[in-house]
């Protein structure tokens, strides 16, 4: 049997980082930056007030309480400013430019809030409540480097440098297809021998959680020709295809039957539990990577986390490798088949120190998976883990 590590290595050697494209900022969330972003101007662009209050010369309020004439009113956005002379105050709002001559702002709470004159009750140091030009970013300074995942704050600073569009590696577009004659769309009634299709929902959501654009292309019955037609129709919008089901040893394995003759997809047994039957390769003129995951719901999800997620990261231009491991103490004994790496479902305590396996470790037990927040990894050569032992876990 092929090792988990060898299978992931083959996958990462095959998938390519997506080519950069220029996107409107509104569409850039979750993509990876493909250029250096710098600011054309200092940020803030001008000295401004950090508080609502009065711009003054600090020397004029050193002997507070003092009363000063208020010679101007500066809301944020004001362009033309009068310089203030000695003994004067100007009412100023947060974000408004500091007038020439002023060197400090007195918060309104330290005054009588007057409009013609103002009584300042406390002295302020020079620079009090003043935000200096360039304090956040100098003109020309790089604020984000290529390879940065664009989240809310990153999008904010790109907009904050005045950019409308940005070069990024896009979110991979991933089409998810379920196969199985027993599958019914949730919402429709269940007939004898049928189950509701859950994998396409799980996998599409997992794609989105991993930063891809997931499209649920629904279910295909057990006919290989119909499966190939469906796959062909989906390839135009796919950077990756994920299928679930139809890859093990049964009499009706449409995915295996349809793809084996192409010679570009390998079906293998990987030394893991769950998730042993795996298929991976490329399809279509554009050599679109395809993951044919096992149908058991827990198996397909675990396979996604171990193999598809790292591939999506590589395609997005992010560092890609096996999921990060954390160490915790397991609170009950575990068993694992010899020669396979087990990924048991567990609940990791909030502080990350201890982990409890969930009840129901079958690869069909989706409710048990839904109650878990981690996978407990038991190495290939280990068959029994005593309660209290240190184990490695993958957060999910
Ligand atoms: N004789 C053998 N039988 C099986 C082997 C084996 O080595 N020899 N491997 C087992 C393992 S391990 C797994 S995992 C499954 C994988 O089977 P398939 O990938 O061919 O998947 P199916 O047979 O289509 O389905 C398996 C199971 O999962 C349910 N399923 C499928 N799709 C969905 C879906 N979209 N939503 C919810 N549930 C789904 C399906 O009804 C089956 O119960 O094979 C074992 N058998
Ligand atoms: O190894 Mo299968 O993937 O669990 O039931």
From TrEMBL:
Residue span, MoaB/Mog domain: 175-314
InterPro entries named among the record's database cross-references: MoaB/Mog-like_dom_sf, MoaB/Mog_dom, MoeA-like, MoeA_C_domain_IV, MoeA_C_domain_IV_sf, MoeA_linker/N, MoeA_linker/N_sf
Catalytic activity annotation: adenylyl-molybdopterin + molybdate = Mo-molybdopterin + AMP + H(+)
Pathway where it operates: Cofactor biosynthesis; molybdopterin biosynthesis
Pfam families: MoCF_biosynth, MoeA_C, MoeA_N
UniProt KW Repeat keyword: no
Signal sequence segment: none
Keywords (A to Z) from UniProt: Magnesium, Metal-binding, Molybdenum, Molybdenum cofactor biosynthesis, Transferase
Keyword hit for Magnesium: yes
Class in the EC hierarchy, top level: transferase
UniProt cofactor(s): Mg(2+)
Record-listed E.C. numbers: 2.10.1.1
Similarity field: Belongs to the MoeA family.
Function: Catalyzes the insertion of molybdate into adenylated molybdopterin with the concomitant release of AMP.
Protein name: Molybdopterin molybdenumtransferase
Gene symbol of the encoding locus: glp
């Amino acid at each position: 049997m092929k090792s988990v590590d060898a299978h992931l290595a083959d996958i990462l050697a095959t998938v390519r980082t997506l080519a950069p494209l220029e996107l409107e900022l509104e569409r850039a969330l979750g993509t990876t930056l493909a250029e250096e972003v710098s600011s054309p101007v200092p940020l803030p662009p001008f000295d401004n007030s950090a508080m609502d209050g009065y711009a003054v010369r600090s020397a004029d309020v050193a002997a507070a309480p003092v009363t000063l004439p208020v010679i101007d009113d500066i809301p944020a956005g004001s362009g033309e400013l009068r310089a203030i002379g000695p003994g004067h105050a100007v009412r100023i709002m947060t974000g408004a430019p500091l007038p020439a001559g002023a060197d400090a702002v007195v918060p309104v709470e330290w005054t009588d809030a007057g409009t013609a004159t103002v009584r300042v009750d406390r002295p302020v140091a020079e620079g009090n409540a003043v935000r200096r030009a360039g304090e956040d970013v100098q003109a020309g300074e790089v604020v984000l480097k290529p390879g940065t995942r664009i989240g809310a704050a990153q999008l904010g600073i790109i907009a904050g440098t005045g950019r409308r569009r940005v070069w990024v590696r896009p979110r991979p577009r991933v089409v998810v297809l379920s196969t199985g004659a027993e599958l019914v769309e949730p919402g429709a009634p269940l007939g004898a021998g049928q189950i509701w299709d859950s994998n396409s929902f799980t996998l599409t959501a997992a794609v989105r959680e991993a930063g891809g654009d997931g499209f649920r292309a629904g279910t295909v019955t057990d006919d290989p020709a119909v499966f190939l037609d469906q796959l062909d129709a989906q390839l135009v919008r796919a950077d990756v295809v994920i299928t679930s089901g139809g890859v093990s040893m049964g009499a009706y394995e449409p995915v295996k039957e349809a793809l084996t003759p192409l010679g570009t997809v390998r079906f293998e047994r990987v030394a893991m539990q769950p998730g042993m039957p795996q298929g991976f390769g490329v399809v279509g003129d554009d050599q679109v990577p395809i993951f044919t995951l096992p149908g058991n719901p827990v198996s397909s999800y675990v396979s996604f986390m171990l193999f598809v997620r790292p591939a999506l990261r590589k395609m997005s231009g992010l560092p890609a490798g096996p999921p990060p491991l954390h160490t915790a103490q397991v609170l009950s004994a575990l068993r694992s088949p010899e020669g396979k790496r087990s990924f048991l479902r567990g609940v990791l305590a909030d502080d990350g120190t201890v982990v409890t396996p969930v009840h129901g470790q079958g690869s069909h037990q989706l409710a048990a998976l839904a109650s878990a927040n981690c996978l407990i990894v038991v190495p290939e050569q280990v068959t029994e883990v005593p309660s209290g032992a240190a184990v490695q876990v993958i957060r999910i």
